[in-house]
Recover the amino acids of this structure.
């Protein structure tokens, strides 16, 4: 009888050690990896000319750390980026970050360079479809152009985002720079990029939009 008890004790101890080893090698036994929000944008999201700790994307990252459960923000935005460049980089970014949501805030440089609106539309659609193919939720931010680009082009440019959002069934933030664009006191000397003061306004606009999407569209 004593021999049987000793053998059973050894078996239980071995199983305990195996469980401890397994959990230390794979923390997901106890906790899942945090959800991730990937931002694909240009200088408006990369924080051109603004301290990195002040840009709206960093404010968003700090806000989402308090979310339950916390959400990690990966900002893969690049100054000067176009929709074609973002589309080319997207597959690798999706593979690397494995996000639950992708916030697509791209196209301003396409418009400022007077590029084809049909090409911009196709690029946005392809980005949205790539995101969905990876099992993530795409979210879209609309853009506006300064009025000096002409009434017809600027109106078509702005309407393009609504069209894509409706036809691709994507949640749309109508204008990333709401309450910022057109306000000289909130822009840098170049008149194109939001200054540090504007970052909190952009964050508030994005957060009002994203908080609803994160709440209603679970990964």
């Amino acid at each position: 009888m004593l021999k049987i008890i000793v053998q059973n004790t050894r078996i239980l101890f071995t199983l305990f050690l195996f469980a401890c080893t397994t959990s230390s090698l794979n923390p997901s036994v106890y906790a899942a990896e945090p959800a991730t929000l990937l931002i694909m944008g240009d200088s408006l999201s990369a924080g051109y000319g603004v301290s990195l700790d002040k840009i709206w994307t960093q404010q968003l990252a700090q806000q989402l750390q308090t979310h339950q459960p916390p959400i990690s923000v990966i900002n893969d935005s690049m100054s000067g980026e176009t929709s074609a460049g973002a589309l080319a980089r997207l597959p690798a970014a999706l593979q690397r970050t494995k996000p639950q949501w992708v916030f697509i805030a791209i196209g301003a440089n396409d418009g400022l360079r007077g590029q084809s609106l049909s090409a911009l539309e196709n690029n946005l659609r392809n980005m949205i479809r790539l995101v969905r193919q990876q099992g993530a939720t795409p979210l879209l931010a609309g853009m506006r152009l300064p009025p000096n680009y002409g009434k017809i082009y600027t109106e078509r440019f702005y309407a393009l985002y609504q069209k894509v959002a409706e036809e691709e069934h994507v949640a749309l933030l109508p204008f990333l720079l709401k309450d910022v664009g057109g306000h000289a006191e909130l822009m840098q000397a170049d008149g194109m990029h939001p200054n540090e003061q504007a970052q909190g306004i952009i964050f508030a606009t994005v957060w009002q939009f994203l908080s609803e999407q994160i709440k209603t569209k679970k990964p």
